[in-house]
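#help-structures

NK: newbie question. if I give both the sequence and a SMILES, will the prediction place the ligand too? trying with zinc ion
OV: yes, paste both and it writes out the complex. here, I ran yours:
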Amino acid sequence: MSIIKEVGILLRAHPYSESSQVLRFLTPEHGILPVMARGVRRQSSKGQGSPSTFDEVALEVSFRPHRELQTLRGFEVTRSRRSLGKEVIRFWGASLVAELLLAHTLHEGDRTLYEGVAGGLNRLQELPSRQVPGAILAASWTVLERAGLSPALAACTRCGGAVGGEETLVRFSTAEGGLLCAGCGEAGKGPRLGPGARRDLKLLLAGQVPEELRGADVHLRILEAFALHHLAPTRPFRAVDLLHPLMVEAGEVAGGGGE
Ligand SMILES: [Zn+2]
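OV: that's the protein plus ligand as structure tokens.
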């Protein structure tokens, strides 16, 4: 057994007994790190009972290799993300990122992923309301991209031919993993994306938040279908159904004044 010090983002907390919880952290060195936290459920809100979901925490853990569950010895919250809980769309957005991470069950560390997720959650806290749907999608695509699961947008994913250009609408195939040229996409299934939607998707895949994102609800369904198909989680993503009406609403507010 060794004592390790790590930073982590709390993705999920499960009660284990009257006084214990199982906490699942995303860490840069150990991937998803599940720890048993004893005696944390009954403490007052003033004492450090337990970190809040999405908080960044300095951890001290008793670590045994090859064990499912490690033991938390101590922690300190280094960045609180409690404010995400004040607005449902921000909270469920962060929850979607957590669901995607947990569906992937990373056993190895990935510092780039960790930093991408931490930065994505910070933006989800800080950006103005109109950019929140974009911040959710960018952070979610970052998780899939680091899992090696990002769609091909540069060329037809079936024949390698050119896509886009003068064509106004291009078929997006979830199963084939990206855009299809006019010939390959003619009879296929899947939404057809215009140049604006393709540009936005490209930014989102790079973890960037478009200044103005149209059709965030459609982008959410594209991401959901892609993640379900390629990540094959044991259950559907709960946050998507909660987020979808909020994204429709956000789009109506954003587009309502213009026309
Ligand atoms: Zn093609």
